[in-house]
Each structure stands twice: as C-alpha cells, then as structure tokens.
Design goal:
The protein is built from seven helices and 17 strands. A hairpin with a 2-residue loop joins strand 6 (72-79) and strand 7. The strands form three sheets. The chain has an eight-stranded antiparallel beta sheet. The longest helix is centred in the middle third of the chain and has 22 residues, at 121-142. Helices cover 23% and strands 30% of the residues. The chain is of the alpha+beta class. Helix 1 crosses helix 2 (121-142). It is globular. The protein has one domain: PPM-type phosphatase domain (Phosphatase 2c, domain 1), CATH 3.60.40.
C-alpha cells in the first residue's frame, strides 16, 4: 500500500528536447537528479528511465520516437498533495503537449494550495479548464504569425494519488490499467480505470450524435476508421481549437482542417472524464500509456509483462513488446523496424495504416508510457 509521500520533484520528460538530431549515443545516460536515483538510457529511437523514486514508490518510463519530431510528454510529481502523473500524447506538432506539461500541474498545484491541500475531482477539472483556456489564449496571440497552432492538440491522461484515493482524469484515448493481486492465489488481474474518447468506440459515436443531432457528418468512416468530421479520431483534447472555435476554422489554416459548414458549437471538448478508485492493499502497480501501446497489447498482456518482470525496466519491456507485435502484424522483423530512419514514419501501434499519411491530424503518434510500482 502507498505510504506517505514526502519527496518533491518535477519531471517533464521529453528526452529528445526540441532537436531530435542530438543524442545519438546508446547506453546509460546518467542518473540521480530530481528523479531520486533514476537510470536513463537509449536504444536507437527508444528512450527509457528504468527506475526512479517518487515519494515511497518506484516508477519507470519509456518512449519510442515515431515521427521526425517527438510530440509527446510525460511527467511525475510528488509533494504533500500526493503524486501526480501525466501522459500527454500530442498530435499535429509538439507544442500542445509541451504546453500542457508546463502548465497543467502548475494549475493543479495552485488550486490545491487554495483548498489547503485537499484534492477533489473539481480540483482536477479546474486545472484542465485553466490549461485549455491558456492554450487557446496562446493560439489567439500567435494567430497572425503561427496559425497552424490552431490545429495542434494533445490527449491528456492524469492520475493523482491523494491519501488512499486514486483520481484518473482523461481526455482522448490514452489509458491507465491497474495490476491487482487476486486474493492469495498469486495471480494478477488487469483492471482498466480510465474512460477513452475515440470515435472508433460505439458509445463515443453515440455521444457525438446526441450532442450534434443536426449534423449527419459528425462522425465519418474513412478507410475503416471512424473520425470526428472525417478528420480526427479523438473527441476530447486540449488544443485543436480549430474544432472548438469558429474564428480559427478559416484561412490561413490548411484546407484539410477547414469545415465546409458554419460551426455553431464546439465539436471537440476539453472536459475530462474523471473517476476515482479507492486504493487497496492488493493494488500492485499502474500502467499509464498512450493508445500506441494498447493497440497491440491487451490490458491482460501488459499486466502479465509487468508482473513477470516487476520494477526496474517495466516500461521499456512494454514498449518493446508493442513494437514486436506491430512488426509481426506487418510481416516485418523487429530488427528491421528499428532500423527505419527517423525521418520516415514507422509502422507502429498508433499508425492508422501502412502508408501513415499525414493528411489526417491524428494519423501518427508515439508510444509513451509510464509505469508506477506501489511500495
């Protein structure tokens, strides 16, 4: 069971930074620092942090670069409020994920301080709302010089462990899965804790049709994939303001993002689904991951991998397992998949098809995940 969380540290983890041309060496890259003795390394385009400390627990993280520029961010923060985990799966460009990583926790911490450290669903909801408002203001500020910022967005998955409760807040199709001991049997069950917002899910399509009853094109099936307005798969995100505010759905953004009819109401939402889970002594670990991992690994398979190889390096094993499965499905050798140049779009779990065309905003992404081990 989780003990008191006393250490305070901050990690917004984007190992490639702004320039992916750097960091070409393999092997272990230092450790220690604010992450409490973590061990970092790189294998080709796979970056990992095998083990780090958060308060009284441990975590590992891993990310595989899929596009020329890494669009995802991860963070884990601990303090008197508990522990905060964020997985930000960006699309279009990296700016939205970076913005969320820089601001969402800051808003959460300030709001929590106002309530004397008490965390509630409303606390997290307010932090998401302020972050969305801040990014929209940034888009407005840059509209004349960088209008493409209106087409940048990010899925955002957040977990907050406060006292004996785990809050999960999600926008988009990332997922958190709990590994839970089954009594004294030695077996481990997989329990999905998050709710996803992807147009390929029937309930999400139904939700969109109910919200937009006069729009027969609110969801469109293209190449076997359901998309909101035929453009994007996720129905909720931070950013993507061209799908939320009519004043940004016009020139000079690219025509592929412009809707032919007037936008009378926001199409996408930045309102997260928030659930709570009472922590139990049999709750062993959590897996936070973007959709790229879950497309090729079932909840049960992922939990089994972590259970078989606990603690150090769990996130790296999960990412490698997903890549191996992606290679198998495309009749490629895993070793060949790893050799594909970073300037090309690799076949991977978050690709829509083998062509991986960037004509759709959500067609490419990275596998980005965080594993947390309870103490």
């Amino acid at each position: 069971m989780l003990q008191g969380l006393m250490n305070l540290f901050s990690v917004c983890w984007s190992p490639f930074g702004n320039e992916v041309e750097n960091h070409e060496t393999n092997g272990v890259l230092g450790g220690g620092g604010s992450s409490g003795g973590s061990r970092e390394g790189k294998e080709g385009l796979l970056w990992f942090r095998d083990v780090g400390k958060y308060g009284s627990g441990e975590f590992s993280m891993a990310v595989i670069q899929a596009n020329q520029m890494l669009e995802d961010q991860s963070q884990i923060e601990s303090g008197q409020f508990g522990t905060f985990v964020g997985i930000y799966d960006g699309h279009g460009e990296p700016e939205a994920a970076r913005y969320v990583c820089d601001h969402l926790f800051s808003h959460f911490r300030a709001i929590t301080a106002e309530s004397e450290g008490v965390v509630t669903a409303e606390t997290i909801q307010r932090a998401f709302r302020q972050t969305e408002e801040g990014f929209t203001a940034l888009v407005s500020e840059l509209w004349s010089t960088r209008p493409n910022m209106a087409t940048v967005g990010t899925c955002s998955l957040v977990g907050v462990m406060y006292q004996q409760t785990l809050f999960i807040a999600n926008l988009g199709d990332s997922r958190v899965v709990l590994g839970k001991k089954v009594g004294n049997t030695g077996e481990m069950a997989a329990m999905q804790l998050s709710t996803e917002h992807n147009a390929n899910i029937e309930t999400i399509r139904h939700e969109l049709k109910e919200l937009h009853p006069n729009d027969p094109q609110i969801v469109v099936l293209k190449h076997g994939v359901w998309r909101v307005k035929g453009i994007i798969q996720v129905s909720r995100s931070i950013g993507d303001v061209y799908m939320k505010h009519a004043r940004y759905n016009r020139e000079p953004i690219n025509t592929k993002f412009r809707l032919p009819e007037p936008m009378n109401m926001p199409i996408l939402s930045a309102n997260p689904t928030i659930v709570s889970h009472a922590l139990h002594p049999n709750d062993s670990f959590l897996i936070f991951a973007s959709d790229g991992l879950w497309e090729h690994l079932s909840n049960e398979k992922a939990v089994a991998i972590v259970h078989s190889h606990p603690r150090s390096g769990s996130a790296k094993r999960l990412v490698k397992a997903a890549l191996q499965e992606a290679a198998r499905k495309r009749e490629m050798r895993y070793s060949d998949l790893r050799k594909i140049d970073k300037k090309r779009c690799r076949p991977r779990p978050s690709c829509i098809d083998s062509k991986c065309s960037r004509t759709q905003i959500s067609s490419c992404g990275q596998i980005d995940n965080c594993f947390i081990q309870f103490s």
